[in-house]
Write a structure and sequence with these properties.
Methane Monooxygenase Hydroxylase, Chain G, domain 1, Serine Threonine Protein Phosphatase 5, Tetratricopeptide repeat, 250 residues, single chain, 12 helices, mainly alpha
């Protein structure tokens, strides 16, 4: 009997060892992100997923990083490949039935990314999915900064749709969904309170204030933004955009 147990014990020990080995890899990947080495961090998260395909942290981070890195490529077809891969990681994260808010957040995030390269009905479908997943994330964590930002972004996107896009949205939502510039600003401000270091939120908030004819508010937000340290690979370009916008307003 003990001979039959040996392979099972060996397998359990192997799984245990793998689980222990992943912890330092996750720490190293997080450090790479902090050092703004996002491509290297993504590669390491992919390595972790080869060891533990169901690691929810690695899936969550791989999804967000894949979407972010994909946004920097020039070709829309390539962007779609990145965003589709990001959505795959997000759906796998949701399957793990843990960290629900983060899993729903990255699903909403990839839906936003896909909406940026789609038009008409497909864009409307992405925005519908974005709203559903964002609301789901906030059900689990009402103060989730990323989801609050995306809710603001959703309001801003719906508010700015052209006539054809609004028609497609009406069909999918069964009528024009309630969305306003005021709600966008409110959500961006809530996201800023939840996470004062999210530079993309500052830029979108400033643009929303400009749309709302509140230039003083936009200048105040941008002045804070351009002085903040970068925390993602996008932040330096976001700050450059912020400085350019600030110069145009002053």
């Amino acid at each position: 009997m003990k001979f039959y147990l040996l392979p099972v014990i060996a397998m359990l020990v192997s799984f245990s060892t793998e689980a222990q080995d992943v912890a330092p890899l996750l720490t190293e990947a997080a450090k790479l992100e902090k050092d703004l080495k996002e491509n290297e961090a993504l590669d390491l998260y992919k390595t972790i997923l080869k060891i533990q395909p169901g690691n929810s942290v690695a899936l969550f981070r791989a999804s967000e990083l894949t979407g972010r890195i994909g946004s920097r490529v020039k070709d829309d077809k390539q962007k779609i490949v990145y965003y589709t891969t990001a959505r795959y990681y997000a759906k796998e994260a949701l399957k793990q039935k843990e960290n629900f808010a983060d899993a729903f957040y990255v699903l909403a995030y990839t839906s936003l990314r896909l909406s940026s390269v789609n038009k008409g009905k497909e864009k409307a479908m992405n925005l519908r999915d974005m709203k559903y997943y964002t609301d789901s994330a906030l059900l689990f964590t009402p103060n989730h900064s990323g989801a609050l930002y995306l809710l603001g972004k959703w309001n801003f996107e719906i508010y700015g749709l052209n006539t054809a896009e609004k028609a497609a949205v009406k069909v999918l939502f069964g009528g024009m969904p309630k969305a306003s510039l005021g709600d966008a600003i409110s959500n961006f401000e809530k996201a800023r309170m939840a996470n004062p270091w999210m530079l993309v939120n500052y830029l979108d908030l400033a643009n929303a204030y400009i749309k709302d004819h509140k230039t003083d508010k936009a200048i105040e937000v941008l002045n804070k933004m351009v002085k903040m340290p970068p925390r993602t690979g996008d932040d330096e370009s976001l700050k450059a955009e912020g400085r350019k916008l600030l110069a145009a307003l002053q």
